[in-house]
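User: Sequence for Stage III sporulation protein AH below. Tokens please.
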Amino acid sequence: MLKKQTVWLLTMLSLVVVLSVYYVTAPKEMGDSPAFTANEKTDKMKEEPSVAIEEEGGKDSPSTAGETGDDLFMALRMKIEDERSRLRDELNAVVASANATAEQKNEALNKIEQLQALSEKEATLETLIKSKGGYEDVLVRADDDQVRVTIKAKESSAKSANEVIHMVKKEIPDAEYVTVEFQPAG
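Assistant: Structure tokens for Stage III sporulation protein AH:
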């Protein structure tokens, strides 16, 4: 049987290893992380209507000058992935923290699982919408109770937007606000 001192020493060594790994992999800048901007996003989301169909050039149009549609979709996907990666790192830091309570650690683990499930639902929706609608590209972004769908298509109609909204509601029943935006295919 191990002595108490040996167990204590092994515990401290494992803690040092975990903290070292966290320090090496932690993001360097925390000021622009989603945790610091979450309240700003939720305030903006509450003001939008529950269902909206937007054409390119709308008030929240993600297009920027000089980017093609493919570059735009790729840039948005990368931005979303970066934000979620930072948030996952922060949650992992809470789980690895010696100062966090068991409740805080469980909450962080639950949020990590929710992020993973949300990412999987988004990918499923993108594939489903793309295959059923025959669209060139689809980007689905879900935040809390809002889902934004950007579709690259030659034609847009209220009927196709309605079908997309039904697909989103079926896959993500908690979505209160669904926005469908069509961008012309080039």
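The first helix runs from residue 4 to 25.
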